Queue: 3 jobs
Job 1
Amino acid sequence: MGRWRSVLALLLLAAATAACAVPGTGRPPADAATLAVFDVGQALAVGLVTPDGHALLYDAGNSREDAEAVILPFFRAHGIARLDYLVLSHPDQDHVGGMPAILEAIDVGTFVDPVLPSTNRAYLETLRLVRARRIAAVRAERGRTLALGAAVRATVLWPERPFLTEPDGTISDNDNSVVLRIEHGAVRILVPGDLEARGEVALVAREDGALRAAILVVGHHGSRTSSSEAFLEAVRPAVAIVSAGRNNPYGHPHPETLQRFRTFGAQVYRTDVDGTILVRSDGTSWVLVTGQGRS
Ligand SMILES: [Zn+2]
């Protein structure tokens, strides 16, 4: 397993699991589920491969290059020829930009989408390809579960209808992002797209305890307007993984947000610093691997 170059941490769910922890050798556990938070710059793409060979991609980065140079090689390396699900959090360029290239390159079982109004060209091309390839398309809405084999369960926690609106009445893209909860045994991962504080508060009011997750793929690239105290109180992550571009013009992740993670005791990893970040779970504990660069 020489490709696992730099194991930074072996993290345990709780002290109670310490006795059966995977030894900290850097060797990923056999029969693991793998989560990848890809280094796609100022954008988001999250991959998942289950122990029994099911696969999901949540968002696809900003561009064709993100899909071809970063995302697809990961699935190929894991022997994945078909994605069970392609999930779009919301139709902004930094999430949908690479999707047409994904659809052209790999079979997809089901496309999952909140169906937000958008004129983004990559989104319209994505919809065209989904139709042309007769891919099943389902609406992402709270309560929908995504079947991913025997070991892993994914549940859509957000959005719900009616969509949240801005003060001027327009539908908010970010606050209606798909929030996905992934469960592998006792290991929980929460992926909230670009959800911001208003969406977080609405979600916490409905789900509360169901949001608890050891691993949080941080909302909206670590912006100041996401990862509110109320949300972090509900999630209580041990690890917070930020997808942001090197020297991005938005200042993501924001120092105040990083401080909030420190306050809640979450260890922060960032794609702009750590490259593609992998989490390998055996259903009880997990290993986090950084430094997976572009191939
Ligand atoms: Zn974004």
Note: The chain has one domain: 32-276.
Job 2
Amino acid sequence: MIFIGAILLFLGIGDLPDAWRIGLILIIVAMVALMTVPFVQRSRQRRAAAAGSPARSDPSPVADPPVADPPVAPAAAPAQASVPPVTEPDRAPATFAAGLASSRRTLRDRLASIRGRTPDAETWESFEEALLGADVGVSTTMATLDRLRRTAAEAGITEPDDLMRALGDQMREVLDADRALATSAPGRDGATAVWLFVGVNGVGKTTTIGKVGHRLSSSGQRVVMAAGDTFRAAAASQLQTWADRCGAELISGSSGADPSSVVHDAISAAAARSADVVLADTAGRLQTRKNLMDELAKVRRVADREPGAVAETLLVIDATTGQNGLSQARAFAEATDVTGVVLTKLDGSAKGGIVFAIEAELGLPVKLVGLGEHAEDLVDFDPDSYVDALLGVAGEPQPSGGE
Ligand SMILES: Nc1nc2c(ncn2[C@@H]2O[C@H](COP(=O)(O)OP(=O)(O)OP(=O)(O)O)[C@@H](O)[C@H]2O)c(=O)[nH]1
Ligand SMILES: [Mg+2]
């Protein structure tokens, strides 16, 4: 500003013709405008990072090889690394029944009016509302109820409790996918197995890696973690805390490094140490950002090269986001050949029906479920326990789950 003032003073006392003065003033205005652009951009990035949104600039699409270090994105303001304290020894283990208590309560409330009545149009409406309220989704709800109506007519079902049982049976039939977690890629037995974790921001990718690492290490497996989120400054230290807790080795790169290169380094280190599995973290990204999805596809391709082989690409979905999880799943499946879903934050969500929608509509198996923030709060998805916990099927004993 002092500089501009001095120039204006000079213009004022100088002997220049008017046209020269106007020209000089225009040049100064243009220079000031150009100087403010980076400040505005930086403050926008800071605001977006503080709000936890994926305000990263798109990395330029890079051809497959070489893998080594092109800068990918400018460092964002470090977001808080969130790692819960170590679990107290007497803490009760997470269960489906407790995790789905809120979904079950919502469903029961909506179905309360049909109890004791012969099924009629209102009964079906209540069922529809209840399933939609549990986030089963429109098309899956309609298909489910069409089939249930047919079953009810054929079997002469008149009691609402029997209808609930029939619904439970029907759901179990749909949830029949193979949900075993692969310890090697098909046809690549000698290669180092990689489990890649992908998903939008804040869904629980890093926490899930911590939980999976805890589980695998506890069963005697040698785990290497790859800090493939090179965008968020605090991401590597968050993963380091989890790695330290479960005795895994962490391989990380510098902030802004190419995530493919970090994952590749981790796989080489794991192969050299004969580790059983590499758990690779990735930065959260919106499924609508094409360049970021291309970057993820590249990470997967690089991870699948010798000496590694991608055994699992696990899409992490936050159960509380409901139906948006379906569009995330479609886009990520297209970019990275998703082999299974980890559904996190099912604890406290009233939208537990999303599991059914994911499997019925997309055919993706839900393999793991997060029921809390702690290392032990991860369970294998079990259709029977899920259906029982969601519907609270009459006649079957249900743990209270805090209800
Ligand atoms: N209640 C609950 N919280 C969870 C669960 N999984 C993760 N969280 C919490 O969700 C928050 C985000 O978890 P992160 O693991 O950092 O998520 P992320 O997907 O790695 O996030 P970005 O790397 O920023 O994209 C943390 O506070 C976790 O403790 C879960 O199953 N239940
Ligand atoms: Mg993370």
Note: The CA atoms of residues 331 and 359 lie 15 Å apart.
Job 3
Amino acid sequence: MEKKPRAFDAAASARVDRMYQNPDIVAQRVFVRDHLALQPGEAVIDVGAGPGLLALEMAADVGPTGKVLALDPSADMRSIAEKRCQDSNWITVTDGDATALPADDASLDAVVATQVFEYVPDMPAALKECLRVLKPGGRLLALDTDWDSAVINTAERDRMTKVLAAWRAHFFHSDLPGRLPRLIREAGFDLRFTGGTPVVNTSMNKDTYAGDVVFTIAKFAERKGGLTPDICAAWLKEMTDLDAAGRFFFSITRFLFVAIKPN
Ligand SMILES: C[S@@+](CC[C@H](N)C(=O)[O-])C[C@H]1O[C@@H](n2cnc3c(N)ncnc32)[C@H](O)[C@@H]1O
């Protein structure tokens, strides 16, 4: 069966908007912006900007003399981003795709894509576009997840393996980070930094990423991942029981890549 890219509808967009305001993901954006080190007056495109949280923060970094293009193919995501960014007229929220960026050749100082490339089928084409729109010396920052990096406490390892395998179907590429260094170099970039930042939660309370994503995984595994409702409910019960007993542990690593367009 041909694999199709996943569209973010109204419900998925609202979920991402809520989840990405969580302190774990706020800290993740600080990590991203530290590595991007945007300067006042710079022009940046946020590819797959989603609800516009990073775009708004980057707008503060570049200031009104700079420019932020927040691109997303999802109309529901764009409508959230437009509301969020309406007071900063140097942010433009725009429709588009990672493989056809609405920017002139060599016009931008930075291209950012956080948790987006795992949904983009043609990664060589997307990276070629990133290279095209960057000025010589401009930087690309990509942040992506490989769910094989998940460490989740369980007494039922086989069931955990099944649930995480079902969840991987959410992504077009569930294993992109391991392949990105080669793809980035083959596109013509000079890869300067590879690192990671983990999300580590010992509770599923509402202020944790796990407190949201565990429910999303269970729902997805049942509705679209092909697992029976019984398996998903039993997995979710184990997670909530572990949490109640103070034995919950969840960790996932986001991998970060910073590359430069050669002069
Ligand atoms: C998990 S969200 C991440 C949103 C945002 N980058 C962030 O970190 O807050 C993934 C986003 O990628 C967008 N996306 C999916 N396929 C895309 C593509 N081919 N080109 C550009 N964006 C895409 C989705 O619409 C969605 O908004």
Note: Strands lie at 43-47, 67-71, 91-94, 108-114, 134-145, 151-152, 190-201, 250-260.
